[in-house]
Structure formats: structure tokens, C-alpha cells
Amino acid sequence: MGLFDIIFRPKDALKSMRALRDAKKYFATLTAYEPVFHSWRGAIYEYELVRAAIDARARHISKLKADIHGTAQLSLQSKLKQGPNQWQTWSQFLYRVSTILDNQSTCFIAPIFDADMRITGYYPLLPEKCSIVEYDGEAWLKYAFSRGQVAAVELRKCGILTKFQYKSDFFGTNNDALDDTIKLVDIQRQGIKLAVKNSQTYRFMAQLTNFSKHDDLVRERDRFTEENFSKDAKGGGLLLFPNTYKDIQQIKTDAYTIDASQMEYIRTNVYNYFGVNENILQNKAKSDELDAFFNGAIEPFAIQFSEVMTKAIFSERERAQGSRFVANANRLQYMTVNEKVAMVQQLLDRGVMSINEARELFNYEDVEGGDLRTIRGEYKDASDLDTINVIQEEKNDE
Predict the structure, then answer these.
(1) How many Å apart are CA 80 and CA 121, to the nearest integer?
(2) Domain range holding 84?
(3) DSSP letter, residue 186
(4) How far from the centroid of its chain's Cα atoms is residue 376's Cα?
(5) Run of H or E residues at 326
(6) Buried-state track 234-249, b at ≥16 Cβ within 10 A, e below 16
(7) Cα–Cα distance for residue pair 93/6, rounded to 1 Å
(8) With the CA atoms of 242, 246, 249 and 250 taken in that order, what torsion angle do they form, in degrees rounded to the nearest 10?
């Protein structure tokens, strides 16, 4: 049994198979575009600068902590607290979701069913194609994978994360906007490879006297090359040739390489597209820079991911009763040690954070009784000021 069989349980999911067989129309959307997703033809992940940008976002996103609140779906909650599925940790799951989302602008999260068709976890998918079809009055996601496997799951049980969502009501727009920049990156890479290759070879042209046949010219060229430039050539670095050669000239080729300003233009385009910068990529960013990166890149993902997972896990009634999934950022410790100390001094004695929450900022283990919140004695409820003043006056009179 493979991963596909475990996730979709095709032998047990009879309704799913009927949906695949009987669905003859797409689910009607508001736009004129058919609700069909195709994996992007581009290979942006194969370019080191783009991969570094995607990796930087995914590494920070993988720090998010998955929390579940509420009393609904307690059995599923218990499983999800251990991990999203039997193969991945939450950190790995989040890294994969972020990477797929940046590469494809759409990421599908599918439920994993047991033999009784109960949901036991979730898995991020990378289908070749996905369409929204209608069966028995309900919308279904119909997945098609590169190995030819096909499966369908009710849309309400799945999660869809998107970027650049514009034309489609359900899916994000592909990364075609990055095409021109990727072409420049490719030209730069090929230019560097060609320059290195040319620098390691001799390239000359010369005129031979007393040779008139083409075959004679070829044989003489091969002989001269073998004797002087092959790996077995013996000459001690001294090149000798008879006077049958004349007008000897070296062919100089300058390989095209993008200059510094053009390379900076390429980097800026990639950084802007993925919301990163050089300091983020090289792990040199300081607290303010990391704070801005969190607000602009990590927090929007955390909000969308939390809402998508909440809708996939809990019904409308369960959500109304307070059950929800939250990807929080209490492990994104971007502050310096001095800033952490100052924050703890300001918030700990005001009851804003507990002792264990303060310890977590410094990667310390929780302590017994550390979940209590403390408050300094001179802080009083403003509504009790009159009573406090009366007591103080009575003490003064004594």
C-alpha cells in the first residue's frame, strides 16, 4: 500500500469513486474561467536565488506552532497535537505547504481517512491537475497526479491556500510574472559557465602551407592537438611548430555576463516577488528587520493557514461554539536578548504573561506552577479607588 492508497483509501471511498465517474460538469463559479488548476510549467525552484528565497520563507514559517482550541472533534484533536499525519511533524508540514504555495501559488491540503472513512490527519498535495466538479449537489475537488492516479474529496473537507488570487474564484495565479527575471537569471548562469569553459581552452587559427586537401588539414589539426594539448602530451610547457604554419592568431571570445547593476536588478526582482531580502536569506537580519519580515510575510500566511485549517477541521456549528485551529508565532523569537529582558520586565509583573511564557522566550523549560500570572501590589482596579482612598484616610486618622 502506497501513500496515495493510505490518504485516499480508494477501496473504501465508494462515494468518492462514484463522484469521479458520475461528475460530468464543473462546479459553477462567478468568473468565466473553468475551476481547473494546472501545476505551473515553470521550474523556478531549480534556480538557486529563487530557491533560497522560497527556503527562507519556509524556514521561518516552519517555526509556527499549531494549536487547537475548543471541545469539538476531540479524537482528531488528539491526533493532530502529535502531528498532522503519520509521516510529518508540524514543522515539516508547514515547510512543505509554504514551499508548494510559493512555487505554485496554490496549495491543497487533503484529509487522510482511516478504514471507516474517519479523518485522522491532513497532508499537503502537489497534483498535476485539480478541478472542482459537482456531484449530488456538492462541490468536490478532483485530483489528478503525475503517475496517473485520480481521486476526489469533498471541497468542504479540504483546504486551499492561495497567492495572487485574481482570475479564479478558488485558485491562485501562476508565476508567469517572474518569467522575464528567470530568463535573465538563466542567461547569467550560462554566461558564467561559458566564461569558465572558454578560459580553460586554447583557441587559435593558422594557415598551413603545402597542404591542399581537406583530409590533410584535418589530420594535421588532430595530430597537432593530440601531441600538444591532450592529457598525455609531453612538452614541458613548450610549444614548437614548423614553418608550415603562418598567420597564427588567437581567437578571443568574451563571454557575456550581466554586470553588477543588472545582477542587482535581478536580485531585487526576486526579493520583491517573495518578500525577502539579502539579510533574511543569509540569516543576518536584526530584530527590527525580522519584525518587519514577520509582519509582511509570515503573519499573513499564519492567518490564512489558520482559517483554512479551521474550516477544514470543524463544521460551521463547531466553529460557532469556539472550536478553531491557530498557527501562532510564539516561537518566532526575533528579538535580541536585551529586548527580551526589557519586555519581560515590563509585562511579567503586569500579568500580561506568565512565568513559563517568559521562560519560553529564552528557550527554557517550563517549571511547575509557572502558568500563573503575577501582578505588582501597587496596581489597583480603577473602580476601587474610592474604597482604597477611604481605607487610607482611616489609617491616617489612627
Answers:
(1) 6
(2) 3-175
(3) H
(4) 44
(5) strand 324-328
(6) eeeeeeeeeeeeeeee
(7) 17
(8) -20
Final residue of a structural domain among 136, 154, 175: 175
**Residue in the structure block whose three cell numbers are 530584530:** 287
- Kindly report, residue by residue over 130-142, the tens digit of the pLDDT: 888 888 788 888 8
Which grid cell sits at 44?
Answer: 523556478
Q: How far apart are CA 289 and CA 271, in angstroms?
A: 14
Tell me how far apart the alpha carbons of residues 244 and 131 are, in angstroms, rounded to a whole number: 72
Residue 351 backbone phi and psi in degrees, to 5 = 75, 10
* 241 in a structural domain: no
Mean pLDDT in the chain? 78
Residue 268 falls inside a structural domain:
no
Closest C-alpha to 133, from 232, 260, 34, 263: 34
Q: Name the amino acid, one letter, at 124.
A: P
- Give the pLDDT band (50/70/90) at residue 193: low
Residue 39 · residue 129 · CB < 8 Å: yes
Total domains in the fold of the chain: 2
The mean pLDDT value for 50-72 works out to 92
Handedness of CA 233, 238, 244, 247 (dihedral sign): positive
Q: Which of 150, 175, 200 is the last residue of a domain?
A: 175
Rg from Cα positions in the chain? 32
